[in-house]
C-alpha cells in the first residue's frame, strides 16, 4: 500500500467559516484538504464555486482549486493525512436552547482515526465553554496517539471574511507554550497579529463574550426605540444627535438582530454560565428584547393596516424586502435571519394576505426554495409596485435608494412602508410624508408599556 498523501492542513466542515479559512490558507501556500459531508458542497468546491455569497471568494476559490492547493472530499480515508486539523463544523442550538456538540464530537473522532502521532488539532467552532477540554480532547485521546490541541476562535464578519482573516488578530488558546507557538505559526502565514491567551477556556469565552456584547448593545438600541415610540419622537434623531461629537454615548441604531452568531452565541454563553450556577441577567434581557421585536413590530404594522382599511378593498399585499440576516457588508446568508421571523409573524397575523419577498443579494431561486409559499421578486421596484405594505428587513444600501416619497407613488392606495433599519429617517418630514414608519419612529406605544 502506498504512503498516504500528506496535507499541511485539513479543514473539517466547509461551511462559511471552513471554506473561507481553507481558501485563504491555500492562498498562503499551504496544501489544504476540506472534509465536508454534503456531497453537493464538495462538488461545488472542487469546481471552484462557493456555495454562498462572499466578497472576493469566487476568484480566490477558483484560483486555489485550479492550482491544486485546495481540494474537497466527503469523508476521511486512508489515502491522506494532515499535519494540522482545524474543526469548523457548526454548533446549532438544540430545541431546548443548548448548543449541540454531536458534530464537534464526530469531527474529533474522524480526526482521531486519520491523524498520525504528533498532529496539531485546532478547534475553531463557537462552542460552550469546556468543549475543547471535555469533548474534543477525550475523543482524540481515545485513539492512543499523541497530539497537540489549541482553541483559536473564528471572528470574521460575513462580507469581509477574506480581508479580516489577513487583518484581524488571531486568538490562540492553548495550555502549553509549545502548542501555542505551533498554532500561532500556522496563523502567522495569514497575519502578524497574534494574541496568545492563557488557556483553551479563555479562548472559548472570548468569542462568546464578543458577540454577546454586540447583542446587548443592539438590544439597548431597540429598547431606546421602544421608548421613543412611546413618546412619539424619533429614535434615529435621539441616537444620532446624542452621539455627535460625544463618543461616550456611541449607541448603535436600532434594528433586527439575528444571524448565525448573534441569535445563538448569547444562549451558548448563558448555558456555559449555568453549568457553574451563574445567571447572566443582562445577556438574558438583551436576547428577550431582540427576540420579541418581530412580533412586537408586526403588531404595529397590523394596527396600521387596520387603521388605513387596507384589507377591505381587494387582497392585502405585503412585500418583505431584505431577507438575508444583514445587508452591510452584503451577504446571501439566511441563517438566523430575523426577516424570516418577521415573515412568519406577518403570515400568522394576515393568513389571507398575498406575501412576497425580495433580496438584493440572495438569488431568486434560493428564495423560491426557502419560501415556497411566497411570491419571489427579482427587482426591488417590482416588490414596491402595487404593494399595500412594504417592509424593509435588512440594511442593504440599495434598499435606501428609492425615497419614501417615490415609493408612495408606486405602492397601492393608502399603502405604507415599515423600515426596520431607518434608511430614510435622516430625511426631513416633507420627504417622508405620512406613509413611512421605522423602528423607533412609529409613534406607537408597545403593548405592555
UniProtKB/TrEMBL annotation:
Record-linked Pfam families: UDPG_MGDP_dh, UDPG_MGDP_dh_C, UDPG_MGDP_dh_N
Domain UDP-glucose/GDP-mannose dehydrogenase C-terminal: 319-426
Swiss-Prot/TrEMBL keywords: NAD, Oxidoreductase
SUPFAM superfamilies tied to this protein: 6-phosphogluconate dehydrogenase C-terminal domain-like, NAD(P)-binding Rossmann-fold domains, UDP-glucose/GDP-mannose dehydrogenase C-terminal domain
Top-level division of the source organism's lineage: Bacteria
PANTHER family for this protein: UDP-N-ACETYL-D-MANNOSAMINE DEHYDROGENASE
Assigned protein family: Belongs to the UDP-glucose/GDP-mannose dehydrogenase family.
Name of protein: Nucleotide sugar dehydrogenase
